Amino acid sequence: MRITHLRQADLNLLVVFTALAEERNVTRAASRLLLSQPAVSRALQRLREMFHDDLLIRTSSGYEPTPKGERLLRELATTLPRLDRLLSGAEFDPQEEETTFRVAVTDHASHVLCPPICKMVLPEAAKVSFEFVSFGGQTFEAIEKGRIDLMLNADDGYLPPRFASEMVFDDSFSCVAAKENKYPRVLTLKQYLAAQHVGVGIWGELQTLPDKRLAGIGEKRRCPIWVPYFGAAVRCVPGTPFLATVPSRLAGFESNSPAVRILKPPEVLGRFNYLMAWHPRMNTDAAHLWLRRAIRETAKALAIQIAAG
User: Fold this and answer.
1) Strands 62-65 and 99-105
2) What's the pTM value of the predicted model, to 2 decimals?
């Protein structure tokens, strides 16, 4: 980490700049900071020397920021509250601290969790935004390098043991078939293996959960087509003899569709846990603790809602 310029800077000057840029008046800024007006004026001069820019220009209506001053103010709106929280040990405040969380998700998680996050979390977190990105082969590296804050995926056995994780909900599998197909409501293992399937995978050659469980009893299904998303698999089914094996919560979104039927797969497919996972360096970070709590509480509320029908 290179901090050549930071070592030479007086960070207290940034607090003065923020107050002066927000108040647009030396007298009001000095009062807010409990400093004298000359002290604020001297601080502004030092800031101008530090940034090689006027930063704030006096006008008839008060100080106005230069373009560089505007950029600095936007950056400090995020940085200063974080520094203050680090020094005080305070909890993350989503109403005051501007933060964007980047979360890697499968389409399963995005269908199930994103809608309630919009309804339950964001209205109470005025300064927070979420950027959900597709889960894929580069996700683990992105978490290692700090480009992703959290990932949501089924417990498929591929999570590196160095990551921290927590179960957020569990689910079962359902099969989606075209309405005109004559499959029974509950499929036997023989019927399931005789069918052709739309496979869903993001790991290339690595086995998916259904295939792992079939392999555990020495069986294998036939998938003439593979897609990266459960939603795409469901869209492939109408008008074909194919089955799409998808999480039951996601299959539930198709329960009223006139084009498909929802079937129960053989018992061997069982249930599975869904995890959120992160790098252990974030274990005690206040903002990350808030993020995990928000995901946890959203999943819990959703489970109660589903149980209530």
Assistant:
1) unpaired
2) 0.71
Per-residue pLDDT of 19-47, as tens digits, reads: 888 888 899 988 888 889 999 899 989 98
Helices (H), 89-217: 107-116, 139-144, 189-194, 209-215
| Residue 40 CB-half CA count within 13 A | 23
What does residue 246 show for φ and ψ, rounded to 5 degrees?
Answer: -135, 160
Buried b (16+ CB within 10 A) or exposed e, 210-237: bbebbeeeeeebebeeebebbbebbbbb
Report which of 68, 75, 79, 62 is spatially closest to residue 27, judged by C-alpha positions: 62
Per the CB < 8 A criterion, the answer to whether 166 and 294 are in contact is no
Q: Which of 182, 193, 183 is nearest to 222 (CA)?
A: 193
- Per the listing, tokens 């700049």 go with 17
- CA nearest to 164, candidates 283, 268, 60: 283
* Residues 56 and 63 sit within 8 Å (Cβ to Cβ): yes
Q: Tell me, what's the pLDDT at 88? A: 61
Determine the Cα–Cα distance for residues 88 and 81; give it in Å rounded to an integer: 10
